[in-house]
Write a sequence for this structure.
């Protein structure tokens, strides 16, 4: 399910030796990551390994304490809203649905064309006039991702899309992310709790442990080492 052709392109998003945290002391250290257009890159690790902290830093929600973040080769310290104006979209692990608004109005408020969103997730068609708070968890996440992908982001950061959802829903979400890379050239950095599933949809992956990148490689190479990864890198981590 992985794409190809991204390897020769310049990175759309890079972390160059970054350290960051929630105060003066970093909780992630010396992080080097790059994501190229048309590529899905998975960021894997146990709970507390530093994955979300890394995404927040790349998104501009946390300041860089050391190193630098570059978008399209240009170093940036801009906050998230400015990065969003330049084509970066961040889907957090918390569903960003307006619970009192209908599905249709959730899309409109986000400035998203309803037909475009339904092309991505036809399942939402019969739920357009249902309030967000009455949607199932899977439908809420489809709505969240539809709003993100319908904007045609150049860079997509996605944190734990599958949290608590049924396997069939997760498959739909990851297929949509994969299609955004393959068909629209998006550069996708995906944090996913289900490691084996993530490696089926990713081109490459980084494995974090205790705030550092400990392993990286192609998805196919890492799939061949999945038992080692689960035993040695995903079992324990320092709180982050």
């Amino acid at each position: 399910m992985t794409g190809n052709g991204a390897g020769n392109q310049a990175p759309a998003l890079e972390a160059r030796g970054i350290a960051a945290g929630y105060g003066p002391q970093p909780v992630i250290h010396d992080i080097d990551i790059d994501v190229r257009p048309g590529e899905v890159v998975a960021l894997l690790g146990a709970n507390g390994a530093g994955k979300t902290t890394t995404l927040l830093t790349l998104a501009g929600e946390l300041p860089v304490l050391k190193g630098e973040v570059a978008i399209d080769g240009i170093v940036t310290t801009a906050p998230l809203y400015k990065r969003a104006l330049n084509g970066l979209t961040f889907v957090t692990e918390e569903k960003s649905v307006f619970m009192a608004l209908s599905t249709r109005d959730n899309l409109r408020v986000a400035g998203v064309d309803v037909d475009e969103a339904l092309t991505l997730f036809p399942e939402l068609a019969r739920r357009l006039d249902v309030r967000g708070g009455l949607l199932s968890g899977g439908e809420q996440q489809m709505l969240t991702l539809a709003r993100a992908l319908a904007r045609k982001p150049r860079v997509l950061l996605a944190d734990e899309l599958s949290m608590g959802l049924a396997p069939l829903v997760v498959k739909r979400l990851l297929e949509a992310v994969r299609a955004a890379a393959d068909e629209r050239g998006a550069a996708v950095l995906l944090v996913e709790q289900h490691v084996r599933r993530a490696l089926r949809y990713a081109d490459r992956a980084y494995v974090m442990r205790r705030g550092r990148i400990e392993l990286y490689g192609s998805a196919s190479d890492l799939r061949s080492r999945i038992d080692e990864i689960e035993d040695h890198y995903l079992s324990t981590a320092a709180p982050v």
In short: The longest strand covers residues 13-20.
